[in-house]
Every structure is written in C-alpha cells, then in structure tokens.
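Posting this for the archive.
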Amino acid sequence: MLEPGEHALNYLQEHGHEAVLILSDINMPGMSGLQVLRKIKETYESPKPHVMIMTAYGDDENYRLAMDYGADDFLTKPVDFPALKEKLNKVANT
C-alpha cells in the first residue's frame, strides 16, 4: 500500500489537470508534506496546483521551508475553519 505522499503524486500523474487545490500536512508517514510540496511545484507547470500546507508545527523553520518550496499558504492547527473557508473561496475565485 502506498504512503499518502506517494499516493498523491501518483494521482497527480494520472489526473494532474483535475487537481486545483491540495491540502497537505507536513507530518505524514513516508514522504513528508514538504517533500510532496517540492515535487509538485517542480513537476507541474500548467496548471500548477495551489498547495496549502497544514501543520501543528507552526515554527519559523517549517514556514520558511514551505514558502521556499512554493507553498501558496501555510495554516497551523488547530485549523481556524472560518479562515480556511475564506482562503478556499479566494482560490476558487482566481
């Protein structure tokens, strides 16, 4: 069975044109969310999926890495659902 990050990348290979938004946690079994983010942003040019990183690790280092790897947004847990809804609406309207 594939780990979550590998599963996401395999799905994108077959359905990349359908992926508009990806929400990824940093801490996952196998490949980290930051590794998945980096591969997505290096691989998919058009259309490039919007990637939001969600994590309990709101430290400066994880934020910096996520932004360096091309994250479109960085959310900390516990998730503020009204704020998340607002961010999702902005993505939907772009």
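The CA atoms of residues 38 and 69 lie 5 Å apart. The chain has one domain: 21-92.
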